[in-house]
Design brief:
Distance between the termini: 29 Å
Radius of gyration: 19 Å
CATH topology: Butyryl-CoA Dehydrogenase, subunit A, domain 2
Strand content: 15-25%
Order of helices and strands: HHHHHEEEEHEEEEH
CATH architecture: Beta Barrel
Strand order of the largest sheet: 1-4-5-8
Structural class: alpha+beta
Largest sheet: 4 strands, mixed
Number of domains: 1
Helix content: 25-40%
CATH superfamily: Butyryl-CoA Dehydrogenase, subunit A, domain 2
CATH class: Mainly Beta
Amino acid sequence: MDFSLNEEQRRWQNEARHFAKEVLLPASLKRDQIEGGFEPWDWDIIKAGSKLGFRTFAVPKDLGGHGADFVTQGIVMAELAKADSAMSKAFSQNWKWSHLIGEFCTKDQKDRFLTPFLKDDTYVIGSASTEPNAGSDNRFPPLDDKSAGFRLKAEQENTKAGKDGDWILNGDKCFIANGSVGKLFFINARSDFSTIAREGTTVFMVPLETPGFRIGKIFNKATRACRMPTWSASRTRDRRCAAVSPPNSVTSNSPPTRWVFAMPPPSMRCSSPKKKSARASCYGITRSCS
């Protein structure tokens, strides 16, 4: 088996390595000196990386992105994380969700979200899963306990004139990467408490400007190993959904408007895209320590 990188992978590796060395690392070292506060988020870096393709990296090529596969994503993630793991997270967070819009969403959803995402260098995406009162049961709740899992509630209003009513989301999420700067959030919510979380969870796409969608507390996080920590460049924070009502056209299930949450079996729980990006980031961090 040949594990050599192909020409395109080497090109992206060199691009990411140069960007990390010349742009990320010098800025990261300066941010290390900032004690507290939230200034370390650097839009200039996001814009510069976006112009090189790091923000839209995973969007399919036929939709205007670069169509990077998981191996190429891991290569780039490792190079960026070697200089600053937080900023590598700020970019890779978009990879997880933008490709889902491109591959699984309706044309209307692509027009509403993917088109502006591709055009706007400051358009970043977040995912809201963790909750203050549900713990680790959020990700892999027991399959025999209906009370385990997400607690944020999603309820649909009464059907009117033969059309489905709007969905109302109520609850809190916390520790959301890109939480204070994102323009679109993928929110996991329980739409059916009569069954286990695996079958009763729906993913909603909620734009920042949705009425009732509020920002909570910002958390500072140490982001790099073996050096002085950079304060939360990934801008983790709370998100609160108080009677949030995303229109049906922006919710998620197959077909036509929303996705049903499906957890992988235990044998695949370490193979998700999230785990791959985390491994690549850790690998990049360890290289920075050598």
